[in-house]
Amino acid sequence: MSITAAQVKELRERTGAGMMECKKALVETGGDMDAAIEHLRKSGLAKADKKSGRVAAEGVVVSASRGDQAVLVEINCETDFVAKDDNFRRFADQVAELALDHDEVDALLQADLDGGQSVEDTRQQLVAKLGENIQVRRMAHMKSDGALGAYIHGGRIGVLVGVEGADEALARDIAMHVAALNPAYRDAEDVPADVIEKEKQVLVAQAEDSGKPPEIIEKMVTGRLKKHLAEITLTGQPFVKDGDVTVGKLLSGQGASVSGFVRLEVGEGIEKEEADFAAEVMEQARGN
What we know:
By secondary structure, this protein is of the alpha+beta class. It has helices at 5-15, 19-28, 33-51, 80-83, 86-99, 105-110, 119-130, 168-181, 193-208, 214-232, 247-253, 277-285; strands spanning 58-66, 69-77, 112-114, 117-118, 135-143, 147-153, 157-164, 238-239, 242-246, 257-265.
């Protein structure tokens, strides 16, 4: 039978699939619109499954907030090109809003995103449409009785900070600092004892090589350990917008304190493969 341009247009609008895929689906289903939609859905599932093993270390970190709570969500893809795609960005923003009401990624994937379609179904369709592995990797929630600062840097680094006794402007400045200097802990009291002991052992070994007497070595280790703790803690670091004052002094000067913070960066912990760009282009051109 003859498939009209109007049918192809309608199927494309309803599914978001490419024009040629829509025409092929209509031909194979004899022009039955509902059957064509189901055909494209199944095709999307197959493509998503095929691409699921490919490394997705690019993407975005997005945030959403409501009242006294906020969330960060990392959504990955394979290339920076897709990370900038409007469809990918729209999906990420919608998922972030939905993530405010879900504590785990698995539950989020099963949640209704739009008109009865789950996040997972939408993800699979996006894989088929954009041709890359796309994953909702992780998310982090924060709730604060005080000010809640959120900062996204270049779409790749996201930070949430809870600050008591301060306004949102200071909270956002602290979030910006965390994005830039990536402290591992809030303050020295938060650093685990085993982490301190391990660093102390390293410093002792280095100091002993100097050949100085034990009492001098002890002072050297104490001073170096204090410096190290300042470097890895938020309150000990020089404030990114004013290096003459530490974050701790900035906060205490305003009668404020940080209740907690979280930082997500795209691709953290994912081992990236060396890409052959020409081979990738050829593979996508073949429809793989």
